[in-house]
Design brief:
Radius of gyration: 18 Å
Mean pLDDT: 92
CATH class of the largest domain: Alpha Beta
CATH architecture of the largest domain: 2-Layer Sandwich
Strand order of the largest sheet: 6-7-5-4-8-9-10-11
CATH topology of the largest domain: Enolase-like, domain 1
Strand content: 15-25%
Structural class: alpha/beta
Shape: globular
Number of helices: 9
Largest sheet: 8 strands, mixed
Distance between the termini: 18 Å
Length: about 280
């Protein structure tokens, strides 16, 4: 099955026999924040207080959601039903993108619900790149151009190949190259990827090219889902944002301001994760 189908299946098992939260509200950044990193994510709030983050700048998703398209009847909706939209067969057009975004946010919110019920909170990250520890002689693959991290990686003497979707970035630069071909990852012994590959359903294709990597780190604010399907696929570290102040986070997001004071970055390995309780 696909990652999305496996995630929804894991949520169904984890929630089985327990109350299913309902959607309380969808929180969006203001349109004027879309040009900054403070305007890249939405948060879906459940009636148990859980929040699920999803990227909103694929296509015109943010504009569509801000206009109310696809979000009119969210309040009171069964969160698991909404999460299932994330694993629906891929479609085309704005409607499909909206449902996928909302479904992913619901899956992340339900994952938070499950972790809270388990009494689990992920450990804080020690750095901003999931402990990937670039070394001389490493060939590091980067999925998505993490511009602030380029110097950190290349200064260590590692060879760097970036896989991007945007053809405008393609080319050879002083210390790295950018390509559209995910097969370039097959020569990498370490891979650092943006969590956007979860939302756009490219995660299975990307990871298929990472079989030779002994360290695969997936990071981003929206990497808040149950990690089991990712660990099963060879991901070694999942790094996301763990919200510690729900209202502070919501208020900052809606104002288009930084919400870093209301969440911490975590880095979760298979050794840190107890797994879902047996029988689920």
């Amino acid at each position: 099955m696909s990652f999305a189908a496996d995630l929804v299946s894991a949520l169904e098992r984890a929630i089985a026999g327990q109350p299913v939260p309902r959607v309380r509200a969808l929180h969006l950044p203001p349109p004027e924040a879309a040009a900054s990193k403070n305007g890249e994510f939405c948060a879906l709030e459940l009636d148990d207080g859980a929040l699920g983050i999803s990227y909103v700048l694929l296509g015109d998703t943010l504009a569509q959601l801000a206009s109310g398209h696809g979000a009119q009847q969210l309040a009171g909706m069964d969160a698991l039903t909404l999460a299932r939209a994330f694993a629906a067969p891929p479609g085309a057009g704005a409607e499909a993108g909206i449902q996928r975004t909302l479904g992913f946010a619901a899956a992340n919110a339900l994952s938070r619900t499950v972790m809270e019920r388990m009494g689990f909170a992920p450990p804080r990250a020690g750095d901003s790149i999931g402990g990937i520890d670039p070394q001389p002689g490493d060939h590091l693959g980067m999925v998505g151009l993490f511009s602030p991290l380029l110097k950190q990686v290349t200064a260590a003497g590692a060879r760097l190949t970036v896989v991007e979707l945007n053809p405008e970035y393609v080319g050879h630069y002083d210390a790295y190259r950018v390509t559209l071909d995910a097969a370039a990852l097959e020569d990498c012994n370490k891979v650092l990827s943006t969590s956007t590959i979860l939302l756009n359903h490219t995660v299975d294709d990307i990871l298929a090219h990472c079989r030779r990597a002994d360290r695969i780190v997936l990071i981003g604010p929206s990497a808040g889902c149950l990690p089991d399907p990712l660990f099963m696929r060879g991901v070694t570290v999942v790094g996301g944002s763990w919200i510690t102040d729900r209202q502070g986070f919501i208020d900052a997001l809606r104002r288009g301001e930084s919400w870093s004071a209301f969440a911490y970055k975590f880095a979760l390995t298979a050794g840190d994760w107890p797994g879902l309780p047996s029988g689920r």
